[in-house]
């Protein structure tokens, strides 16, 4: 629910070994656009995520490689998850390499047969897998929640994490499974990162604090839902819960908020704290199970 977005340049050298290149696809969900990152201090770079395939992006990426020195190439591509704004540029990058007689980058991703394009050849990413290039050691962290195949990457030399869409530079992230999402945030917090390189939005300094903020936000929302249900004399629909909790927010945001409330309710149901008395629909009426909690 971020309103004013911080301006982000198309090309930014963020550290000795990390360069951010915008995917040139700004939007409501992508914020300033998808962040893609070139990683490494030598001529062989690792690219993290590829934008959504905007023609202007491949030109920006090529120009960025030239800015970084002669004969700079992409040896490997790491993909955080299957969403189109992160994988859409793969084909253009591979085509450019082929047409210019460059080594074809190896594309690494946690496999997701339901969503992965059939013509893509991905090398499976396992948890705690190490990827290396000059000046950079990158460790994979499986972080489902935003999507089932989501992976974050820890940059050892900087005690920093490329969070993908698990944590954003501004606002809060969407998720498919709240229980998994909170577990993934807790997993990232264990690294005590100094810095976060998010999939969208500006770099986050004080990374551990941001992760704590995200976890606290979700647990606070959970407590609010429980309190609303405890005070109600009758079961409530997710929409009715939204009207109470989000009363101070603009109504055009309520529909998106309702989806989040439903995911919270499903988690609370799995935790044995609430139940859905209308098993035909998650938008049915929900009630508290134990009023003493």
TrEMBL record:
Family named by the database record: Belongs to the metallo-beta-lactamase superfamily. Glyoxalase II family.
Metal-binding among keywords: yes
Keywords annotated in UniProt: Hydrolase, Metal-binding, Zinc
A Pfam family reported for this protein in Swiss-Prot or TrEMBL: WHD_BLACT
Domain Metallo-beta-lactamase span(s) in chain numbering: 33-200
Protein name: Lactamase
Signal peptide annotation: none
Top-level taxon of origin: Eukaryota
Cited InterPro entries: LACTB2-like_MBL-fold, LACTB2_WH, Metallo-B-lactamas, RibonucZ/Hydroxyglut_hydro, Sec-metab_biosynth-thioest, WH-like_DNA-bd_sf
Record's keyword annotation contains Hydrolase: yes
BP GO annotations: secondary metabolite biosynthetic process
Recorded GO MF terms: hydrolase activity; metal ion binding
